[in-house]
Specification:
mainly alpha; Arc Repressor Mutant, subunit A; 2 domains; about 375 residues; Rhopdopsin 7-helix transmembrane proteins; single chain
């Protein structure tokens, strides 16, 4: 075992950790992310078998046979992309196939059955199947020959239906990272088939090092960024439904400039203008058709505060409404704050504590 093997194994362990995190942490667990977790677990299973198979014999005959059958003879390589494709389908929302999804598992089932027949003859001696045993290397090659065009077709469909139509940078990066891994895998298969493993060791190191780097990226930045974007999209959809969070009470108004202030309140309460994180004095003044300096005087006179605090109170009230609503329990506090109109985590937490005397976490806990 060399340095690159160690890097790959640690990366695969991280993949298992990420998958467990997705399944167990309420911030990450949803049907979309669970498909991604299945993808990571299959990658980890294939990777552990590739990196550790040389040690199976030292663990005893039972483990040698069992791990060889489970890790190698079950053709996981034929299905590793399918959970990822389902993940992309869930993200896209409109990427349907002309046939049921389970049809994509038929080649996997077929070759699993063939490999089982080979094992029952070759490993266990329970049956005699000379045709399958004598042609087993051909069947092993056919697994890749079937899987490669299938995955290229699905991956191309993802690009056409999702990647080139989305503004989600994380999804675009994920697609390109996966493209790189698929390309390295195809080159490795070509080397095995045409050049008798001439460059196998170099290509194997490249592939599993790339897998490790991919998983490290997921662990430390990618998954959180996607979950944040995904949560914000779901929150945005929920906010489009009828919902009336408490809003700051309108102050007593004098006849002077009442019309302008009423317009401002309506813009905030009805059109939810505060959800725009770039909303500032110039934009508000332009909307009302008054000067920025006059707007400052108007807010001071009728709300007795500056414009930033006035806007932030609406944002805080909306955040409080979501934090108190069980329908939003699975979303992290930052996603809620950003969808309420705050531009950053620090701005959200500062305004929330100034307005309520509590952090969002404390506020949520007090109402749980």
């Amino acid at each position: 075992m060399n340095f690159f093997d160690v890097i790959a194994i640690f990366g695969l362990i991280q993949a298992v950790i990420v998958a467990i995190l997705i399944f167990t942490n309420k911030v990450f667990t949803n049907q979309t992310n669970r498909y991604f977790a299945y993808f990571l677990l299959i990658i980890a299973l294939i990777g552990f078998d590739a990196r550790l198979s040389d040690f199976y014999a030292a663990w005893g005959p039972f483990w040698d046979v069992f791990l060889d059958v489970v890790g190698d003879d079950i053709p996981w390589i034929m299905v590793f992309y399918l959970p990822l494709f389902r993940f992309f389908q869930e993200v896209a929302g409109n990427m349907t196939l002309k046939f049921p999804f389970w049809v994509l598992f038929l080649p996997f089932g077929l070759f699993t059955g063939i490999n089982l027949i080979i094992d029952l003859d070759l490993e266990f001696g329970l049956i005699a199947a000379p045709f399958f045993k004598d042609n087993r290397y051909l069947f092993y090659q056919l697994e890749d020959i079937v899987a490669i065009p299938l995955f290229i077709g699905l991956h191309t469909l993802v690009f056409r239906r999702l990647v080139r139509n989305t503004n989600n940078i994380w999804i675009k990066r994920l697609w390109w990272y996966c493209s790189t891994l698929i390309l390295l895998w195809i080159i490795l298969i070509i080397d095995q088939s045409l050049f008798d493993d001439l460059f196998f060791r170099t290509l194997e190191i490249l592939l599993w090092t790339a897998v490790a780097v991919f998983i490290y990226w997921l662990m430390y930045s990618g998954l959180f960024q996607f979950n944040l974007a995904n949560n914000r999209q779901e929150i945005r959809e929920k906010l489009a439904e009828p919902m009336q969070p408490a809003m700051p009470k309108a102050p007593k108004l004098s006849p002077k400039s009442k019309e302008y202030f009423d317009q401002l309140l309506e813009w905030m309460q009805v059109e939810k203008a505060y959800r725009n994180p770039d909303l500032g004095r110039d934009l508000v003044a332009e909307k009302l058709g008054i000067s920025a300096s006059y707007l400052t005087q108007l807010i001071k006179e009728y709300a007795d505060k500056n414009l930033a605090r006035f806007i932030n109170e609406f944002r805080v009230e909306e955040a409080k409404g979501m934090l108190s609503d069980p329908a939003f329990d699975k979303y992290d506090h930052l996603s809620i704050g950003l969808e309420s109109g705050f531009k950053s985590k620090s701005a959200y937490y500062t305004a929330f504590k100034n307005h309520t005397g509590q952090t969002p976490s404390q506020y949520k806990k007090a109402r749980s």
